[in-house]
Write a structure and sequence with these properties.
G protein-coupled receptor activity; G-protein coupled receptors family 1 profile domain-containing protein; Rhopdopsin 7-helix transmembrane proteins; GPCR_Rhodpsn_7TM; mainly alpha; two-stranded antiparallel sheet; 14 helices
Amino acid sequence: MNGSFVFIAFTGSPVSYVDLAGVPILIGFGIAEFVLNMIVLSAMTLDVLDQDVSNYFIINLALADGLIGVVVVYNGLYTLLEWKDIHECLLRFGIVNGFNVASVLNIALLTIDKFIKIKYPFKYYHYITPNRAKVTTLIVWLFALTISVLPAAGWSNIGEEWSHCAFFDVMSRSYLITSILIYCVPFIVIVTLYPQMCSLARRHALAIQSQTRLYIHRKGTWRFVKPVGLIVGIYVICWLPVGTYLILVLADRKTVELSGVDMGTILAFSAGIGSLNSLFNPIIYAAKIPAVSRQFKRVCCCCCWRVPFIQSNAYSSMHVSTASIQTGISRHSSEQLDQC
């Protein structure tokens, strides 16, 4: 807080001009993250869930990102109200950490899934089965929820004179170090496997192109790599600032405090950049997955709710269709979309 404020909340906390200007933007981003990821969730669940095991990981990633949007909205409201309750404080920080752990673990699972699909295409459905995907994602969520409740369960730095919910004051140093190590494991998996995926995809594309002399096959080979690459790249860009700042504070907090800048302000700003990752992921899905793109069109245009559904799977190598029927339905769908 700076010296000036607009009003005093009913809890007795002053609300500054910066808070009043930034909170609506924060809440707007949170609502957008939740809505967009729910569209992805509904599209993947209703349309293409049974066609590709990879969709289980995409669904869980969309669920984690949507829940992060809910937390962003809640944090925006907290900034204005700041109800002083120690259990709420610890649980809120724990849930933020837990949902982000679920997000990065699902990104790692999606990366592993695509790596196996490229390196072992004929054994993929032997290694990755729907039951194994369900069990793995369930373990991820149980682990994330455990991480969420640990601070409220006692793994914190609460003293008898607690009066303000400040992240670096209430969170235990050992808990923060453990959380960073947890994030490092999937991050190492991601940055290790993705370059190998690119190398394998390039070799496959060159081999197929040399045999068939058709560029379309090369483009099809890269379709497994590009969406994951965008998701991984955006995740690293968004969360690198807050990750770096946390490491600096844990390494030498006194030096950071001597800089004169409020630690909570820097953390809030860097964490806000990180939360934008949950906004970019559904946009990537809309651009790369036809079912998600169609669902976005249905939501954006009310008259498109009755558009005939065209079964399509961009990730399946086997596609059975009747060309004349698809052409007619596609033309009819395009005409309805143009009328919207």
